[in-house]
Amino acid sequence: MHSFGLLSAAIWAPILGGFLVLAVGDRAGGNPARWLALLVSLLTFAITLPLFTSFDTHTAAMQFVERVPWIPAFHIAYFLGIDGISLWFILLTSFLTVLVVIASWRNVSMRIAQYLAAFLIMDGLMIGVFCALDAILFYVFWEAMLIPMFLIIGVWGGPRRVYATIKFFLYTFLGSVLMLVAFLYLYFHSGDSFSLLAFQKTPLGANAQIWIFLAFLIAFAVKIPMWPVHTWLPDAHVEAPTGGSVILAAIMLKMGAYGFLRLSLPITPDASHQLAWLMIVLSLIAIVYIALIAIVQQDMKKLIAYSSIAHMGFVTLGFFVFTQTAIEGAIIQMLSHGFVSAAMFLCVGVLYDRMHTRDIQAYGGVANVMPIFASLMMLFAMANVGLPGTSGFVGEFMVVLGTYQVHPWPAIIAATGLITGAGYTLWLFKRVIFGGIIHAEVAALSDLNGREILVLGSLAVFVLLQGVWPAPFLDIVHQSVAHLLQQVATSKIPG
Amino acid sequence: MWIFDWLHGLPPIWVYLLIPLAPLAGSLVAGLGGWFLRERAHWAPIAGVAFALYLAIFVLLQVLHGQTFYGNVYTWAVFGNLPVHIGFDIDSLTAVMLVVVTFVSLCVHVYTIGYMHDDPGYARFFSYIALFTFSMLMLVMANNFLQLFFGWEAVGLVSYLLIGFWFTRESANQASLKAFLVNRVGDFGFLIGIAAIYHYCGSLDYRTVFAMVPSLVGQTVTIIPGHPWSVLTWIAILLFIGAMGKSAQVPLHVWLPESMEGPTPISALIHAATMVTAGIFMVSRMSPIYEQSATALSVILIIGAITALFMGLIGLVQNDIKRIIAYSTLSQLGYMTAALGASAFSAAIFHLMTHAFFKALLFLAAGSVIHAMQNEQDIRKMGGLRAHMPITYLTFLVGGLALSGIPPFAGFFSKDLIIEAVGESSLTGATFAYVLLVLGALVTALYTFRMFFLVFHGKKRMDEHTQEHLHESPWVITAPLIALAIPSLLAGWFFIAPVGLGAFLDSSLQIRAQWNTIGEIAAHWQGTGAFLVHGLESWPFWLAILGIALAAWFYLLHDGVPAALNRLLAPFTWVLRKKYGFDAFNQLVFVQGALLLGRRFWHWGDEAIIDGGMVNGSARLVARAALSWRRLQTGYIYHYAFVMIIGLVLFMTYFMIWRG
């Protein structure tokens, strides 16, 4: 595949654009900054589209590769490339950034230029994570991405934002430090290369693999997050502004899962098999334990945050049963969760903008005054429940089917998510949307405006499209997953 | 027939596609254009469903001429290297279901014009019921488990939306949530069943799976160590758990009575005629699997029989007209399920069909009564309506007689056939089931005519105001009643041979010779007339007559008797009024249990142990150590960034030295 520097463009356009927005600043009420940010995000999205249209689905090799030496002394390279696993997340990132810019149009009034710039810069950094094939480059993007998110929560967040940001930062930062150590170890064993592809080919002893796997596990488990290192997520979501929650849930949580696919499974295949039981147990705890916690939440954002953790449990479960159906299902689940969690947080944002509370009890009967909103949120709730015909179904269905092939019991336990997921989502919906109006504030609510309809409506299209016809989404990942499975099945223990 | 001529020119797949898509289009028009169409919103859904009925009749005629279809429309996804399709399986079973579903749906659509006339959610209601029709059609037309599951869940969704249609009512919201969750318990089993099929057959396609079934006989699966089960029994029971949810079999029946919170037209369409029979349809469709498991068939037989009698008994003590009919529906679904257990699939489908007609009729007639009574549903406050609403009265009577199994009404043929078939069965539990089903005949007639007499005969017990406004319903309501009364009267006589005895359905079913109960009955078949005469000499008929006589004695002649009986049988009626305690048990164990566990996990697990102990505990440790570094925490971002860069540099330096 030819390289026209598309990936670089996709990374650097929003970052440069972000600085441009900073330079424009809040003059003229912030409108120039808003339009510029929208333009930049649209441009980035446009840059990422050719990745999809000219993607070759018949190969598992890296495409759109760019490789130039960066720090030659340490063989660190500016090395980019994507395969079927990364492609969707790049598109998801650039698409959601557009939506976040639109969604933030009016509801952020303070320092709008800086706010939007943070999202644009983060857009580029996140795309960078999904493209990077050099460990140091990967690490730099991985850590740098935290800074804008840290600022978004810390500056534009809720009352307990300081606690939340520090918790968020410490968790994720400390988690990743071990990843760096693992990278250094791998560097010396791969014949002086930081290339992830070289890491994947490096033979490693059983013990070394276990240690590297655990180092990666801590970094990724925190990001996903997996039980028991998940408690930063509800706090971060509660304090984050809507846009922050959207990106956090839709993209950042996927980073950890992506890390498993790009690093853990291919680099430490033997350890992955050996510790698969642990991963399956942790995933099942996420599905069962976290879902029960989600049921009793009083804060809408917390509820959806816990629901995210439970849904990510299906993803990690799917990875560690090593069947094609389950891994593909897990990837589809990641993508679907990107749409659905973004939509759910945007829905909460719509209500929060009007009522300034996320307390479920402050609502009730919203459908009476906001019928369009209620209909759209019903669709997203159903996707969250995993109803066939929506995107939420496809991934869970495939993970359960693929898991059953090797481990019936975990599949059965995971399938209880069908019941608990319906429980917390629809009970939330019942208390917020249905019922008579008890609070006067609810009676005064106005339905969605055109901008909100545009944002939620475009997510609705994807939720339905992916549910009714997931084939094109899966076609992209087939070869890469098959290749990955082959890598995982091949022992790397020397001798 | 000439009205179908032009369809012969179309590719068959187009015709099949149009059947579900026509109601879907109607639903979209009414749903998206409702704000603009308002009281004209019914046209698109009705046109869509009417067109679907027209096509369904065409398809039925074609199937009668041997023109079936099995093929795919598009590839939904590829799992590994297994393609999963959206496609259609058009055979006799599907054709019968298509006609029943679209016919009842059309009647209900027309009826709704009158019934929901003043409701602010008029367009929304039409959008939902047309969407329901689409989903149900997708379910019965499926040629693979994925699409079956899609239809299965989609009808559940619409049911949820319609039970909670009046969303300002707390009771309606409670009922809809309960319906969804209980159904999800069933779907949980169903999903695992599909996963097991995928595992053992490597496919989700009906024909491929059925072709694999013989090779699975004798294979075992060990789910609980030390207890190997037959793979086919395991699959069959898992799928049946799904059917128990959808078709409301004990103990997953609890949602159906409460679904009566929804508007009456959907009680007729969804919670009597079509959706709740999806489980019956599914098991019949899967007959190649079920026939290989005597254990599964026995379980089905016993659960069906228990539901048939014990849910009917609850119907005796209910006073809400819709709830009585709802318990009756549970009981009748039990009959159908028992028929499945006796391998009398064709009898089950036959009863499904007659029941769809007479039960939809009873619900719609009840709706007509409720309408006239200004939304009063308590039969104790009715009485003497006969004079005011003659059409409703007569059609309700037809429905009641059909339900009670009085010849020559439709229900007699189908119910008697089921009882006969269960009598022929030699499976474990068949005798037990037979006794329950025969006794059920008495109970059915008793609750039906208790309701009938209290509503239409005797003194008028409503208040003056209501009495003044009593009136027969408009034609859009009575016309569907008449349209449904005709098949409730005639469908049994005409369809017992082709449908009930399976002559027409046989090509869709697979029944093993050693327990072919219907084949046994068919072998001794001497014509419909002889069956009718034979029926007059059998227990169920005389028990039904006894039931009607008792009802007449209690509620027409000596109205003191019920109260006296009530006192006499107080412990028994108390149990019935408590509905055997299922609701209380579920509330206490599952609802409270889940909430309690959730709170414990949250406060003890997440907050106390993980956050309190591990996270903040280590944070405190660090804080103490870092007391002296506090000055560094200036709050300026560039300081933090600076520190980070320093850190990175330190790392680099360290590793340079180490390397060197």
TrEMBL record, chain A:
<keyword id="KW-0812">Transmembrane</keyword>
<feature type="transmembrane region" description="Helical">
    <location>
        <begin position="245"/>
        <end position="263"/>
    </location>
</feature>
<dbReference type="GO" id="GO:0048039">
    <property type="term" value="F:ubiquinone binding"/>
</dbReference>
<feature type="domain" description="NADH:quinone oxidoreductase/Mrp antiporter transmembrane">
    <location>
        <begin position="132"/>
        <end position="416"/>
    </location>
</feature>
<feature type="transmembrane region" description="Helical">
    <location>
        <begin position="208"/>
        <end position="233"/>
    </location>
</feature>
<feature type="transmembrane region" description="Helical">
    <location>
        <begin position="75"/>
        <end position="105"/>
    </location>
</feature>
<keyword id="KW-0560">Oxidoreductase</keyword>
<feature type="transmembrane region" description="Helical">
    <location>
        <begin position="407"/>
        <end position="429"/>
    </location>
</feature>
<dbReference type="InterPro" id="IPR003918">
    <property type="entry name" value="NADH_UbQ_OxRdtase"/>
</dbReference>
<dbReference type="GO" id="GO:0008137">
    <property type="term" value="F:NADH dehydrogenase (ubiquinone) activity"/>
</dbReference>
<feature type="transmembrane region" description="Helical">
    <location>
        <begin position="136"/>
        <end position="156"/>
    </location>
</feature>
<feature type="transmembrane region" description="Helical">
    <location>
        <begin position="6"/>
        <end position="24"/>
    </location>
</feature>
<keyword id="KW-0472">Membrane</keyword>
<dbReference type="Pfam" id="PF00361">
    <property type="entry name" value="Proton_antipo_M"/>
</dbReference>
<keyword id="KW-1133">Transmembrane helix</keyword>
<dbReference type="GO" id="GO:0016020">
    <property type="term" value="C:membrane"/>
</dbReference>
<dbReference type="GO" id="GO:0012505">
    <property type="term" value="C:endomembrane system"/>
</dbReference>
<dbReference type="GO" id="GO:0015990">
    <property type="term" value="P:electron transport coupled proton transport"/>
</dbReference>
<feature type="transmembrane region" description="Helical">
    <location>
        <begin position="168"/>
        <end position="188"/>
    </location>
</feature>
<feature type="transmembrane region" description="Helical">
    <location>
        <begin position="275"/>
        <end position="296"/>
    </location>
</feature>
<feature type="transmembrane region" description="Helical">
    <location>
        <begin position="364"/>
        <end position="387"/>
    </location>
</feature>
<dbReference type="GO" id="GO:0042773">
    <property type="term" value="P:ATP synthesis coupled electron transport"/>
</dbReference>
TrEMBL record, chain B:
<feature type="transmembrane region" description="Helical">
    <location>
        <begin position="393"/>
        <end position="413"/>
    </location>
</feature>
<feature type="transmembrane region" description="Helical">
    <location>
        <begin position="356"/>
        <end position="373"/>
    </location>
</feature>
<feature type="transmembrane region" description="Helical">
    <location>
        <begin position="125"/>
        <end position="142"/>
    </location>
</feature>
<feature type="transmembrane region" description="Helical">
    <location>
        <begin position="44"/>
        <end position="64"/>
    </location>
</feature>
<feature type="transmembrane region" description="Helical">
    <location>
        <begin position="148"/>
        <end position="167"/>
    </location>
</feature>
<feature type="transmembrane region" description="Helical">
    <location>
        <begin position="433"/>
        <end position="455"/>
    </location>
</feature>
<keyword id="KW-1133">Transmembrane helix</keyword>
<feature type="transmembrane region" description="Helical">
    <location>
        <begin position="324"/>
        <end position="350"/>
    </location>
</feature>
<dbReference type="InterPro" id="IPR003945">
    <property type="entry name" value="NU5C-like"/>
</dbReference>
<dbReference type="GO" id="GO:0003954">
    <property type="term" value="F:NADH dehydrogenase activity"/>
</dbReference>
<dbReference type="InterPro" id="IPR001750">
    <property type="entry name" value="ND/Mrp_TM"/>
</dbReference>
<dbReference type="GO" id="GO:0012505">
    <property type="term" value="C:endomembrane system"/>
</dbReference>
<dbReference type="Pfam" id="PF00361">
    <property type="entry name" value="Proton_antipo_M"/>
</dbReference>
<feature type="transmembrane region" description="Helical">
    <location>
        <begin position="226"/>
        <end position="245"/>
    </location>
</feature>
<dbReference type="GO" id="GO:0008137">
    <property type="term" value="F:NADH dehydrogenase (ubiquinone) activity"/>
</dbReference>
<feature type="transmembrane region" description="Helical">
    <location>
        <begin position="13"/>
        <end position="37"/>
    </location>
</feature>
<feature type="domain" description="NADH-Ubiquinone oxidoreductase (complex I) chain 5 N-terminal">
    <location>
        <begin position="76"/>
        <end position="126"/>
    </location>
</feature>
<protein>
    <submittedName>
        <fullName>NADH-quinone oxidoreductase subunit L</fullName>
    </submittedName>
</protein>
<dbReference type="InterPro" id="IPR001516">
    <property type="entry name" value="Proton_antipo_N"/>
</dbReference>
<feature type="transmembrane region" description="Helical">
    <location>
        <begin position="539"/>
        <end position="557"/>
    </location>
</feature>
<feature type="domain" description="NADH:quinone oxidoreductase/Mrp antiporter transmembrane">
    <location>
        <begin position="142"/>
        <end position="433"/>
    </location>
</feature>
<feature type="transmembrane region" description="Helical">
    <location>
        <begin position="637"/>
        <end position="657"/>
    </location>
</feature>
